[in-house]
Every structure is written in structure tokens, then in C-alpha cells.
Structure prediction request, 259 residues.
Amino acid sequence: MNRRTRRSLVLAAAMSSIFVLPRIADATIVEFQTVMGDFEVNLYDNATPETVANFLDYINNGSYNGSILHRSIANFIVQGGGFSFNTLTGQIDMIAANAAVVNEPEFANVRGTIAMAKQAGNPNSATNQWFFNLADNTANLDTQNGGFTAFGEVVGNGMDVVDAIAALQTFDLGGALSETPLRGDTTNNPLDDTNYIIVTAVIISDSTVDSAGAAGLNPTPTTANPGGGGTVPPATGGGGGTFGILGLFGLLLAYRFKR
Prediction:
């Protein structure tokens, strides 16, 4: 292969990646479809690009389809993303987790925000689990474990659905399911899909870049860990794709001057 052919292949591959990469992470509004009703969440893709890209990866893979809301604590949070109901076996399965994502504690954990759950004592351990803040949890969640990354907010009347789920009685099903909300006839043995709060699907409903800005949303900055508390670089780029594009152009320039 001569030098001109090799250079053409590198350029073609890079240009192809430029047009593909942003499409993975530019969606800013997603719809949660649940057995209790549907609601939309507007994501903060500009300020928390790594977290949004991580979340959208799970959505694009269908990981949250058939998942359950497995944890509910009154006036605190409703949590999901970690477990699913297997309609074939009637059992609860764990959702496979990807690599952990870097913490991006830019915004406060106020009521209505969605944030990433993570392991105690490890700020950069969030994978597939998330939670909705039922109350203003800034005094608690913004100050511990490096701050919890709020990466979007429920819009419209969506919190009516979340509040209805939070109002359900919870049951100790053992292990991580010690505070699981259930509906219907909870004397069922075994419990089935009429009991669990199932997220039938999470879909991208609006792929407009920076729809949070267009919608006039004004998320509350955290005061506990501004800019990630100095441990995480300030987030840049829209839709989490800008860094990838600039990096590819840098590689092209480096290749050209190296010749």
C-alpha cells in the first residue's frame, strides 16, 4: 500500500467517525415508559457529557427495557437501572454493567432531577443505576462521596408519575431489594409483572442538541463541589461529542505533519 492510499484510508475512517460519534450522545430528551405512566426527562448533555453518553449507551442497548424500580425511600429517592424482571423465568435478573463513568457533580440534587447511583467511598463508580430525587437532597447528596451527578430533570407533569410510584408501599425482598415498591396483589407467590414497577422502555424522544437550553431549563449549580470540586475537569462540549471530533482532527493534523 503506497503512502497516498494509506493517507486516504486514514482520512476516510476519521471523517466517518466524525459523523457517527455525536449521534450516540446528542439526544437530550428521553421518555420513560412505565406501567404507572410515561414521563420525559431532559438531559444535561452539555454540562455532564460523559454521564449522558453513558446513560444513552444503556438506552441504545435496550438495557433498561423491562427493568424495575427496585428501591423507593419516602421523601428521598426512587431508584432503578440495576435489575430487570425476566418474563420467561419470573425471576429478577441483574442488568449487566459497563465500565464506570467519571463523576460530574455540576448540578444540585434538587427535586425532580435524575442522578447516578454509585458505590460508597468511590466517586467515580457510577455504572447503570440511577435515581430520581423526590425532594431537595442537596444538603446530603451534593456533599458526600464527591457529590452525586445530577444529569437531567423530569419535565412537564412527569413528577406526578414518579410521586405515584413513590407513594406505593415498599417490601423487603432481600438483598438490594430491601425497599422495593410493589403494586397490585402483593400476596402473589411468586410475585409477577402485575406487582413490580416495570420500566417497559426508555426511548429517545427528542434528539435535538442542547434541548435543555432550548427549553429554557435553568438547573441549579451545586455549591458543594463546583466544577467537580477540583478533582474532575469542568465538562465541555455539546452532547458529549465535541471532544471526540476535536481529537480526530488533532490526529489528522499530527499525521499530516509527521509525514
Remarks:
- The radius of gyration is 20 Å.
